[in-house]
Every structure is written in C-alpha cells, then in structure tokens.
Amino acid sequence: MDLSKVKLVATDMDGTLLNSKGEVSDRFFELFEELKNLGVLFVAASGRQYYSIVEKLKPIKDEIYVIAENGALTMKQDQELQIKEIHRDVYVDLIETVKKIENTQVIFCGRKRGYIENYGQDFVNFFSEFYDRYEIVDNLSQVINDQCLKIAICNQQGAEKNIYPSVKHLENKLKVKVSGEVWLDLSHNLADKGNALSQIQEKYNISSEETMAFGDYNNDLEMLQKATYSFAMKNAHKNVKEIANYITKSNDDNGVEYMLEKMIAAKKRRV
C-alpha cells in the first residue's frame, strides 16, 4: 500500500469523519492543513444537505469540494458544479407513495432548503442536525419553488427493514439507498457519490490509484469503487466492508485521521 501516491481524499461525514456526537475532531483540521500543503485535494461527500456539511467544516469550507445529497449536488466555494434533480412529475407521485409507509417521516431535500410536514418538535430536533436550512410546510407535494435533489425517508425502527421493502421496486428508475440506520434516500438514477467524484477526478486528471476514500454505509459504495485506497470504517455496514479494499478504525476512534496521518507521513518520506 503506497499511500505516497494519493492526490485526492474523499470522505463521507456521518459515521465516518464525524464522531457519534456529530463532531469533527480538531486533529482533522490540523491534518487538512498538511494535506493542502502537500497539494492533496479534499472532498466531503455526504447524504447531508450542502449547508449542513459546510457548517460542520466551516473553517475550510472555501478550500474543499462538497458532494451533497448523495451526489445530487457538487459545490466549490458556493459555485454549483453539477446538479441532478428529480423532476416534479416524478417526485409528486413519489411523495404520495412513500407517505403511506407506516411510522415514517418524509423530507423533500431541495436545493434551497429541506422541507418537512409537521411531524412534531421531537422530529424537528432530530432532523435539524442534518438540515441547516429547512421549512415546515402543510403538504410536501405543493413545494414548487425549489428543485428536488432527493427524497429522504426516516424510520426510527430501522430503514433497511421498515422502508426498503416498500421502495425496492423503484430501483429500475431511481437510486434507492439505505444511507444510515434510520435513513433511506431516493434520488435521480445518476445521482451518487461515485459519479460526482469521477467528475472531480477527471477535472484534475487524478486516477483511482491516486484516490483515497472513506465510508460507512450503502450510499458510499459507488464512491469507494472509484478509489484504490478505499477504506471501510470499523463501524461500517457489512456491504461496505465487503467492497472496500481496507478497513480502518471506527469513527469514534478517528479512523479517517489515523489513515490520513499514515498517508501524510508516506508522502513526506517520498519527498
């Protein structure tokens, strides 16, 4: 494993770069400065809303690429680089279908903000960790002044068991991703972190052999396939561990930082 070759690092946020409290470590920001000095590009790739990602990474937000909403949106310094939206005729039917799934909450993930119906304050408190900008509306189907990047569905008893069987049939026309223990996301069929990462790799002529990526859940699979140095977190879903080439420590044990330190040391030795 010759980590000195790495020119681009892409990492998921929740369950990966963020600890269980949703925090980024101070050590990461120190390591980022070293990455920058070594000319290594950094990409934050998450199912989160763009505004939520840059809030977590505020000190470096103007120096990084951000892949948001599972690859539906790519941004750099508030500049929109690519977007994959679900058209209105599709998402209106979709919303009405998924609302029928018991014990779930549905989020319209717009370009401007996230939208929810009135599910109560407890859900707002939970949901607002992932959505920095949001609005409570009477009916999601009536949201017309925004682009739909994703439909997110939450079930606190587990997304894989309680949501996925009801939407599996949509996989022939949409990207259906269990993106966390309680989350399932429906996106444009070309919206994934791998496709979004490929565009950045092509822009800088960076190969998979020069790419390091980290992830923990099914919405990270395509991104990990774009990196020779693909790492599943110790706390990752079994599907991620099966596809990744390597495994690192858990998010609570700073598994991303652990491997970044090794990569930085390898590049310095090479110099």
Automatic annotation (TrEMBL):
Cleaved signal peptide residues: none
One cellular-component annotation, GO: cytosol
Record-linked InterPro entries: Cof (IPR000150), HAD-like_sf (IPR036412), HAD-SF_hydro_IIB (IPR006379), HAD_sf (IPR023214)
Pfam family, one: Hydrolase_3
GO terms, molecular function: magnesium ion binding; phosphatase activity
NCBIfam families in the record: Cof-subfamily, HAD-SF-IIB
Name the record gives this protein: Cof subfamily protein (Haloacid dehalogenase superfamily)/HAD superfamily hydrolase (TIGR01484 family)
Organism placement in taxonomy: Bacteria, Pseudomonadati, Bacteroidota, Flavobacteriia, Flavobacteriales
